[in-house]
Amino acid sequence: MDSVGLANYETLEQFIIERQNQFPMSTGAFSRLIRDLSVAGKIVNRDMRRAGLVDISGATGMVNVQGEVQQKMDALAHSEFVRALKRGGECCLIGSEEHAEAIPLQTNNQEEGGEYIVLLDPLDGSSNIEVNVSVGTIFSIYKLPSGVVEPSLDDALQSGTEQIAAGYIVYGSSTMFVYTTGNGVNGFTLDPSIGEFLLSHPNIRIPHQGTSYSINEGNYNSFEEGLKEYIKWMQLTDPVDNRPYSTRYIGSFVSDFHRNLLKGGLYIYPSTEKNPEGKLRLMYEANPMAFIVEQAGGLASTGTQRVLEVTPDRLHQRVPLYIGSNDMVLAAEAFLSGSRLHTD
Ligand code: AHM
Ligand code: MG
Protein backbone atom coordinates (compact mmCIF):
# COMPACT_ATOMS: atom_id res chain seq x y z
CA MET A 1 0.00 0.00 0.00
CA ASP A 2 1.61 3.33 -1.00
CA SER A 3 0.98 6.68 0.61
CA VAL A 4 -1.22 7.74 -2.32
CA GLY A 5 -3.43 4.67 -1.73
CA LEU A 6 -3.55 5.46 1.98
CA ALA A 7 -5.22 8.80 1.35
CA ASN A 8 -8.34 6.93 0.20
CA TYR A 9 -8.82 5.13 3.48
CA GLU A 10 -11.19 6.35 6.14
CA THR A 11 -9.98 6.14 9.75
CA LEU A 12 -12.05 4.46 12.45
CA GLU A 13 -12.46 7.84 14.11
CA GLN A 14 -13.74 9.50 10.93
CA PHE A 15 -16.10 6.58 10.36
CA ILE A 16 -17.53 6.81 13.88
CA ILE A 17 -18.01 10.58 13.65
CA GLU A 18 -19.77 10.25 10.29
CA ARG A 19 -22.13 7.64 11.72
CA GLN A 20 -22.67 9.77 14.82
CA ASN A 21 -23.68 12.72 12.66
CA GLN A 22 -26.53 10.63 11.25
CA PHE A 23 -28.13 10.80 14.73
CA PRO A 24 -28.91 14.43 15.53
CA MET A 25 -29.55 13.68 19.23
CA SER A 26 -26.18 11.98 19.65
CA THR A 27 -23.99 13.34 22.44
CA GLY A 28 -20.80 11.77 21.10
CA ALA A 29 -20.48 9.56 24.21
CA PHE A 30 -20.73 6.31 22.29
CA SER A 31 -18.16 7.50 19.73
CA ARG A 32 -15.78 8.29 22.57
CA LEU A 33 -16.36 4.86 24.08
CA ILE A 34 -15.40 3.12 20.82
CA ARG A 35 -12.37 5.38 20.56
CA ASP A 36 -11.33 4.43 24.13
CA LEU A 37 -11.59 0.73 23.26
CA SER A 38 -9.58 1.22 20.08
CA VAL A 39 -6.85 3.10 21.96
CA ALA A 40 -6.59 0.30 24.54
CA GLY A 41 -6.43 -2.14 21.64
CA LYS A 42 -3.49 -0.24 20.16
CA ILE A 43 -1.66 -0.36 23.49
CA VAL A 44 -2.25 -4.09 23.89
CA ASN A 45 -1.16 -4.55 20.27
CA ARG A 46 2.08 -2.72 20.98
CA ASP A 47 2.75 -4.90 24.02
CA MET A 48 1.92 -8.08 22.10
CA ARG A 49 4.39 -7.20 19.37
CA ARG A 50 7.16 -7.20 21.99
CA ALA A 51 5.94 -10.27 23.85
CA GLY A 52 8.91 -12.42 22.88
CA LEU A 53 11.42 -9.71 23.83
CA VAL A 54 10.40 -8.50 27.25
CA ASP A 55 9.17 -10.39 30.26
CA ILE A 56 5.45 -10.26 29.54
CA SER A 57 4.75 -13.69 28.08
CA GLY A 58 4.09 -16.76 30.18
CA ALA A 59 1.89 -17.35 33.20
CA THR A 60 1.42 -15.04 36.19
CA GLY A 61 1.31 -18.00 38.58
CA MET A 62 -2.34 -17.14 39.34
CA VAL A 63 -5.56 -18.78 38.16
CA ASN A 64 -8.51 -16.66 37.11
CA VAL A 65 -12.11 -16.97 38.28
CA GLN A 66 -12.66 -19.82 35.78
CA GLY A 67 -9.83 -21.81 37.34
CA GLU A 68 -7.67 -21.23 34.26
CA VAL A 69 -4.00 -20.34 34.35
CA GLN A 70 -3.71 -16.59 33.96
CA GLN A 71 -1.13 -15.39 31.45
CA LYS A 72 0.79 -12.18 32.12
CA MET A 73 -0.68 -10.72 28.95
CA ASP A 74 -4.21 -11.52 30.21
CA ALA A 75 -3.57 -9.41 33.28
CA LEU A 76 -1.89 -6.66 31.30
CA ALA A 77 -4.66 -6.47 28.69
CA HIS A 78 -7.31 -6.43 31.44
CA SER A 79 -5.56 -3.48 33.13
CA GLU A 80 -5.17 -1.57 29.86
CA PHE A 81 -8.85 -1.85 28.97
CA VAL A 82 -10.01 -0.98 32.50
CA ARG A 83 -7.68 2.01 32.57
CA ALA A 84 -8.83 3.28 29.16
CA LEU A 85 -12.50 2.91 30.07
CA LYS A 86 -12.01 4.60 33.44
CA ARG A 87 -10.12 7.49 31.91
CA GLY A 88 -12.65 7.83 29.08
CA GLY A 89 -15.57 8.33 31.49
CA GLU A 90 -18.28 6.86 29.23
CA CYS A 91 -18.44 3.45 30.90
CA CYS A 92 -20.06 2.85 34.30
CA LEU A 93 -19.53 -0.89 34.74
CA ILE A 94 -17.05 -3.43 33.39
CA GLY A 95 -17.34 -7.20 33.39
CA SER A 96 -14.12 -8.97 32.47
CA GLU A 97 -13.08 -12.58 32.08
CA GLU A 98 -10.11 -11.74 34.27
CA HIS A 99 -12.11 -10.43 37.24
CA ALA A 100 -14.55 -12.40 39.39
CA GLU A 101 -16.95 -9.53 40.06
CA ALA A 102 -18.31 -6.75 37.88
CA ILE A 103 -16.25 -3.56 38.31
CA PRO A 104 -18.31 -0.39 38.89
CA LEU A 105 -16.51 2.70 37.63
CA GLN A 106 -18.65 5.23 39.49
CA THR A 107 -21.24 5.04 42.19
CA ASN A 108 -22.26 8.68 42.45
CA ASN A 109 -24.87 10.53 40.44
CA GLN A 110 -25.34 8.74 37.12
CA GLU A 111 -25.59 12.03 35.26
CA GLU A 112 -21.97 12.66 36.05
CA GLY A 113 -20.81 9.24 34.94
CA GLY A 114 -20.90 6.96 31.95
CA GLU A 115 -24.04 5.34 30.68
CA TYR A 116 -22.49 2.28 29.04
CA ILE A 117 -21.71 -1.19 30.36
CA VAL A 118 -18.77 -2.99 28.74
CA LEU A 119 -18.29 -6.74 29.06
CA LEU A 120 -15.05 -8.10 27.68
CA ASP A 121 -12.56 -10.86 27.30
CA PRO A 122 -9.41 -8.72 27.30
CA LEU A 123 -7.26 -11.39 25.65
CA ASP A 124 -8.92 -14.48 24.26
CA GLY A 125 -6.73 -17.44 23.33
CA SER A 126 -3.89 -16.10 25.45
CA SER A 127 -2.33 -19.52 26.03
CA ASN A 128 -1.26 -19.24 22.37
CA ILE A 129 0.90 -16.14 22.80
CA GLU A 130 4.06 -18.00 23.68
CA VAL A 131 3.93 -19.80 20.34
CA ASN A 132 3.19 -16.66 18.34
CA VAL A 133 -0.39 -17.50 17.36
CA SER A 134 -3.00 -14.79 16.81
CA VAL A 135 -5.16 -13.84 19.79
CA GLY A 136 -7.86 -11.24 20.31
CA THR A 137 -10.00 -8.98 22.49
CA ILE A 138 -13.81 -9.40 22.44
CA PHE A 139 -16.22 -6.74 23.73
CA SER A 140 -19.94 -6.31 24.20
CA ILE A 141 -21.67 -3.00 24.99
CA TYR A 142 -25.00 -2.41 26.75
CA LYS A 143 -26.74 0.72 27.87
CA LEU A 144 -27.24 1.20 31.61
CA PRO A 145 -31.01 0.88 32.19
CA SER A 146 -32.50 4.32 32.78
CA GLY A 147 -32.99 5.41 36.35
CA VAL A 148 -30.18 3.25 37.76
CA VAL A 149 -27.90 5.29 40.01
CA GLU A 150 -25.58 2.60 41.33
CA PRO A 151 -24.77 0.20 38.48
CA SER A 152 -24.35 -3.43 39.51
CA LEU A 153 -23.99 -6.83 37.89
CA ASP A 154 -27.78 -7.17 37.61
CA ASP A 155 -27.76 -4.26 35.13
CA ALA A 156 -25.22 -6.09 32.99
CA LEU A 157 -27.14 -9.37 32.87
CA GLN A 158 -29.21 -8.41 29.84
CA SER A 159 -29.87 -10.83 27.00
CA GLY A 160 -27.68 -10.56 23.89
CA THR A 161 -30.51 -8.99 21.89
CA GLU A 162 -30.10 -5.87 24.05
CA GLN A 163 -26.49 -5.26 22.98
CA ILE A 164 -26.06 -1.89 21.35
CA ALA A 165 -22.64 -2.74 19.95
CA ALA A 166 -20.11 -5.55 19.91
CA GLY A 167 -16.72 -6.10 18.39
CA TYR A 168 -13.35 -7.75 18.51
CA ILE A 169 -9.75 -6.88 17.89
CA VAL A 170 -7.63 -9.60 16.33
CA TYR A 171 -3.89 -9.33 16.91
CA GLY A 172 -2.76 -11.32 13.91
CA SER A 173 -0.41 -10.92 10.97
CA SER A 174 -2.13 -7.57 10.91
CA THR A 175 -4.25 -6.10 13.69
CA MET A 176 -7.92 -5.54 12.95
CA PHE A 177 -10.79 -3.86 14.77
CA VAL A 178 -14.16 -5.30 13.70
CA TYR A 179 -17.43 -4.05 15.14
CA THR A 180 -21.15 -3.66 14.70
CA THR A 181 -23.77 -1.33 16.12
CA GLY A 182 -26.60 -3.31 14.55
CA ASN A 183 -26.17 -1.73 11.17
CA GLY A 184 -23.81 -4.15 9.43
CA VAL A 185 -20.25 -5.14 10.29
CA ASN A 186 -17.17 -3.13 9.40
CA GLY A 187 -13.49 -4.03 9.74
CA PHE A 188 -10.54 -1.66 10.19
CA THR A 189 -6.89 -2.64 9.79
CA LEU A 190 -4.24 -0.99 11.92
CA ASP A 191 -1.63 0.82 9.87
CA PRO A 192 1.27 0.74 12.34
CA SER A 193 3.14 3.47 10.48
CA ILE A 194 0.47 6.07 11.31
CA GLY A 195 -1.11 4.33 14.33
CA GLU A 196 -4.62 4.42 12.88
CA PHE A 197 -7.26 1.80 12.20
CA LEU A 198 -8.31 2.26 8.55
CA LEU A 199 -11.55 1.00 7.02
CA SER A 200 -10.36 -2.01 5.01
CA HIS A 201 -13.38 -4.36 5.16
CA PRO A 202 -16.62 -2.39 4.78
CA ASN A 203 -19.93 -4.19 5.22
CA ILE A 204 -18.58 -7.69 5.86
CA ARG A 205 -20.91 -10.52 4.78
CA ILE A 206 -20.30 -14.14 5.78
CA PRO A 207 -20.88 -16.67 2.96
CA HIS A 208 -24.03 -18.76 3.57
CA GLN A 209 -22.02 -21.95 3.28
CA GLY A 210 -18.36 -22.61 3.95
CA THR A 211 -16.10 -25.58 3.36
CA SER A 212 -14.36 -25.77 6.72
CA TYR A 213 -15.30 -26.39 10.34
CA SER A 214 -13.44 -25.53 13.54
CA ILE A 215 -13.71 -27.80 16.56
CA ASN A 216 -11.38 -29.47 19.04
CA GLU A 217 -11.83 -32.98 17.67
CA GLY A 218 -9.67 -34.40 20.46
CA ASN A 219 -12.88 -34.29 22.52
CA TYR A 220 -14.76 -36.41 19.93
CA ASN A 221 -15.53 -39.28 22.31
CA SER A 222 -17.50 -37.01 24.61
CA PHE A 223 -19.56 -35.30 21.87
CA GLU A 224 -23.27 -36.02 21.76
CA GLU A 225 -24.46 -38.42 19.04
CA GLY A 226 -25.97 -35.74 16.79
CA LEU A 227 -22.68 -33.85 16.65
CA LYS A 228 -20.77 -37.04 15.85
CA GLU A 229 -23.22 -37.66 13.00
CA TYR A 230 -22.71 -34.13 11.67
CA ILE A 231 -18.94 -34.46 11.76
CA LYS A 232 -19.12 -37.80 9.93
CA TRP A 233 -21.39 -36.17 7.32
CA MET A 234 -18.97 -33.27 6.81
CA GLN A 235 -16.16 -35.78 6.26
CA LEU A 236 -17.97 -37.74 3.54
CA THR A 237 -17.11 -37.07 -0.10
CA ASP A 238 -19.79 -35.34 -2.15
CA PRO A 239 -18.77 -33.02 -5.00
CA VAL A 240 -22.26 -31.45 -4.99
CA ASP A 241 -21.47 -29.51 -1.84
CA ASN A 242 -17.67 -29.70 -1.92
CA ARG A 243 -17.37 -32.31 0.82
CA PRO A 244 -15.30 -33.43 2.56
CA TYR A 245 -14.92 -30.14 4.41
CA SER A 246 -11.58 -29.20 5.94
CA THR A 247 -10.87 -28.88 9.62
CA ARG A 248 -9.38 -25.50 10.56
CA TYR A 249 -8.86 -25.12 14.30
CA ILE A 250 -6.41 -22.56 15.63
CA GLY A 251 -7.65 -22.92 19.22
CA SER A 252 -7.95 -19.15 19.45
CA PHE A 253 -11.64 -18.26 19.12
CA VAL A 254 -11.21 -14.75 17.70
CA SER A 255 -8.88 -16.04 14.99
CA ASP A 256 -11.07 -19.02 14.09
CA PHE A 257 -14.14 -16.79 14.07
CA HIS A 258 -12.45 -14.10 11.97
CA ARG A 259 -11.39 -16.59 9.29
CA ASN A 260 -14.87 -18.11 9.15
CA LEU A 261 -16.49 -14.66 8.99
CA LEU A 262 -14.47 -13.73 5.93
CA LYS A 263 -14.34 -17.11 4.17
CA GLY A 264 -17.40 -18.95 5.46
CA GLY A 265 -17.26 -21.82 7.94
CA LEU A 266 -18.50 -23.04 11.28
CA TYR A 267 -16.93 -22.77 14.75
CA ILE A 268 -18.15 -25.22 17.36
CA TYR A 269 -17.42 -25.44 21.07
CA PRO A 270 -19.98 -27.99 22.24
CA SER A 271 -20.79 -29.49 25.56
CA THR A 272 -18.03 -31.96 26.49
CA GLU A 273 -17.26 -34.21 29.43
CA LYS A 274 -14.83 -31.64 30.82
CA ASN A 275 -17.06 -28.65 30.03
CA PRO A 276 -20.69 -29.87 30.14
CA GLU A 277 -22.01 -26.33 29.52
CA GLY A 278 -19.48 -25.67 26.76
CA LYS A 279 -16.30 -23.70 27.35
CA LEU A 280 -16.99 -20.25 25.97
CA ARG A 281 -18.58 -17.57 28.08
CA LEU A 282 -22.00 -16.22 27.11
CA MET A 283 -21.62 -12.57 28.11
CA TYR A 284 -18.27 -11.63 26.62
CA GLU A 285 -17.49 -14.32 24.03
CA ALA A 286 -20.64 -15.91 22.59
CA ASN A 287 -23.05 -12.93 22.67
CA PRO A 288 -20.80 -10.33 21.03
CA MET A 289 -19.72 -12.75 18.30
CA ALA A 290 -23.36 -13.82 17.84
CA PHE A 291 -24.38 -10.19 17.31
CA ILE A 292 -21.58 -9.72 14.78
CA VAL A 293 -22.25 -12.93 12.88
CA GLU A 294 -25.99 -12.22 12.61
CA GLN A 295 -25.25 -8.71 11.37
CA ALA A 296 -23.01 -10.28 8.71
CA GLY A 297 -25.74 -12.73 7.61
CA GLY A 298 -24.76 -15.77 9.69
CA LEU A 299 -26.16 -17.53 12.74
CA ALA A 300 -25.18 -18.42 16.30
CA SER A 301 -26.88 -21.22 18.20
CA THR A 302 -26.43 -23.19 21.40
CA GLY A 303 -27.46 -26.19 19.31
CA THR A 304 -31.09 -25.75 20.32
CA GLN A 305 -31.57 -22.00 20.79
CA ARG A 306 -30.50 -18.67 19.33
CA VAL A 307 -27.54 -17.53 21.45
CA LEU A 308 -28.77 -13.93 21.63
CA GLU A 309 -31.97 -15.09 23.33
CA VAL A 310 -30.33 -17.03 26.15
CA THR A 311 -31.32 -15.52 29.51
CA PRO A 312 -28.14 -14.81 31.46
CA ASP A 313 -27.94 -15.48 35.18
CA ARG A 314 -24.26 -14.86 35.90
CA LEU A 315 -21.33 -12.96 34.48
CA HIS A 316 -19.09 -15.94 33.73
CA GLN A 317 -21.83 -18.26 32.47
CA ARG A 318 -20.79 -20.72 29.77
CA VAL A 319 -22.77 -21.84 26.76
CA PRO A 320 -22.35 -24.44 23.98
CA LEU A 321 -21.67 -22.58 20.74
CA TYR A 322 -22.30 -23.26 17.03
CA ILE A 323 -21.49 -20.07 15.13
CA GLY A 324 -20.80 -19.16 11.53
CA SER A 325 -22.33 -19.62 8.08
CA ASN A 326 -26.13 -19.73 8.01
CA ASP A 327 -26.51 -23.13 6.29
CA MET A 328 -23.88 -24.82 8.44
CA VAL A 329 -25.47 -23.72 11.72
CA LEU A 330 -28.91 -24.85 10.50
CA ALA A 331 -27.45 -28.22 9.49
CA ALA A 332 -25.82 -28.57 12.92
CA GLU A 333 -29.18 -27.95 14.62
CA ALA A 334 -30.85 -30.55 12.38
CA PHE A 335 -28.22 -33.19 13.21
CA LEU A 336 -28.38 -32.37 16.92
CA SER A 337 -32.16 -32.75 16.96
CA GLY A 338 -31.80 -36.15 15.30
CA SER A 339 -33.76 -35.11 12.21
CA ARG A 340 -30.71 -35.78 9.99
CA LEU A 341 -28.19 -38.63 9.94
CA HIS A 342 -24.79 -38.79 8.25
CA THR A 343 -26.19 -41.26 5.73
CA ASP A 344 -28.87 -38.74 4.56
P1 AHM B 1 -9.69 -18.38 27.06
O1 AHM B 1 -10.77 -17.34 27.05
O2 AHM B 1 -9.32 -18.81 28.44
O3 AHM B 1 -8.51 -17.99 26.21
O4 AHM B 1 -10.33 -19.72 26.45
C1 AHM B 1 -11.05 -19.66 25.26
C2 AHM B 1 -10.27 -20.38 24.19
C3 AHM B 1 -10.74 -20.02 22.81
O5 AHM B 1 -10.01 -18.94 22.30
C4 AHM B 1 -10.47 -21.27 22.05
O6 AHM B 1 -11.26 -21.40 20.91
C5 AHM B 1 -10.74 -22.33 23.05
O7 AHM B 1 -10.49 -21.76 24.32
C6 AHM B 1 -9.85 -23.49 22.87
O8 AHM B 1 -10.17 -24.46 23.81
P2 AHM B 1 -9.59 -25.95 23.69
O9 AHM B 1 -8.14 -25.85 23.98
O10 AHM B 1 -10.35 -26.71 24.73
O11 AHM B 1 -9.88 -26.45 22.31
MG1 MG C 1 -11.69 -16.16 26.16
Quick structural summary:
With 344 residues, this protein is an alpha+beta fold. It has helices at 3-6, 12-21, 29-49, 72-88, 153-156, 225-235, 253-263, 282-295, 326-336, and strands spanning 59-63, 69-71, 91-96, 103-104, 116-124, 135-143, 165-171, 175-180, 185-191, 196-201, 212-214, 246-247, 266-269, 299-301, 321-324. Strands 4-3-5-6-7-8-9-10 form an eight-stranded mixed β-sheet, with helices on both faces. A five-stranded mixed β-sheet has the order 12-11-13-15-14, with helices on both faces.
CATH architecture of the largest domain, please? 2-Layer Sandwich
Low-pLDDT ranges: none
Mean pLDDT: 92
Radius of gyration: 20 Å
The CATH topology assignment of the largest domain is: Fructose-1,6-Bisphosphatase, Chain A, domain 1
Number of domains: 2
CATH class of the largest domain: Alpha Beta
**Helical residues, percent:** 25-40%
- Terminal residue distance: 49 Å
Major sheet: order of its strands?
A: 4-3-5-6-7-8-9-10
